[in-house]
Amino acid sequence: MGLHDWPGRELSDEELDVAYNVRRKAGEELFGELMVRYRADSDKAVEGLPGSPGILYDEPSGERLDVWGTGDDGPRPVLVFVHGGYWKALSRADSAFMARMLHEQGVATVVPDYTLAPAATLEEIVRQVRASVAWIWRHGREHGLDPNRIVVAGSSAGGHLTGMTMVDGWQGEFGLPVDVVKAAMPFSGLFDLRPLTRVYVNEWLGLDVARAAALSPALVAGARRCPAVIAVAENDGSGFARQSRLFHERWGGELLVVPGRDHFDVVLDLGDPDSSVSRKLLGLVHSV
């Protein structure tokens, strides 16, 4: 796929804005309710849960992560969950709603913060998320985590950041094995960022087409393919649906279209062990 052949190129700027403005699609009332639920469900999930919150994982940025759901049964496989918010909103405190479900299934959860745009460039945000994976590889055992069973998931912008941990070419910089990420499950992710150079999101990203391409998992994937479930909501924004199909075509794995869900509530199903997304995630974790 060349620079003149990317998803949405044939759309007008106004049509692209509609395709990627999922907050407007949801409406302010529903969006606000769901953001409150992210925090409330996360607070409930981690209440009384064993773990180590607030660990500094990256000295240069000062960013921290929370470890939840460790056990007495030895180092546990770990889900790293990367929050969304179009790279400029939300935090680890809003993003642990799956921690209790996973703990009860023998899986630990790590939720990292990253410096939000525009205070950090997208290149720096990607570096920080990769540094959180490197921290688990080096220090996970001290906190009940198995560095040989790391699975990464994330929603929306977090889906993009998940993709940037799946691809080849960055692991050597951190002294990591190329297969440090054993499996992944991006939700409603962004995998070719070039369309975003033409929409409102670029007000805080400041990307040109070349930088957007270099930060696009669909374009820089490399040869290796870890197992993946690429999830998207049935009622997602059309841009996100198209991006998920594109990444599935390029990466492989499984494309999971979740019926009856939209961009913001699909990931909340991870709190329910019987939901389709939880079953798929647990299948990935227990396969590594």
TrEMBL record:
Which keywords, in A-to-Z order, does the entry hold? Hydrolase
Superkingdom: Bacteria
The record's listing under Gene3D superfamilies reads: alpha/beta hydrolase
SUPFAM superfamilies associated with the record: alpha/beta-Hydrolases
Matches recorded under InterPro entries: AB_hydrolase_fold (IPR029058), BD-FAE-like_dom (IPR049492), GDXG_lipolytic_enzyme (IPR050300)
Q: Which residues form the BD-FAE-like domain?
A: 72-249
Instruction: Write down the PANTHER family for this protein, in alphabetical order.
Output: AB HYDROLASE SUPERFAMILY PROTEIN C4A8.06C, KYNURENINE FORMAMIDASE
* Full protein name: Alpha/beta hydrolase
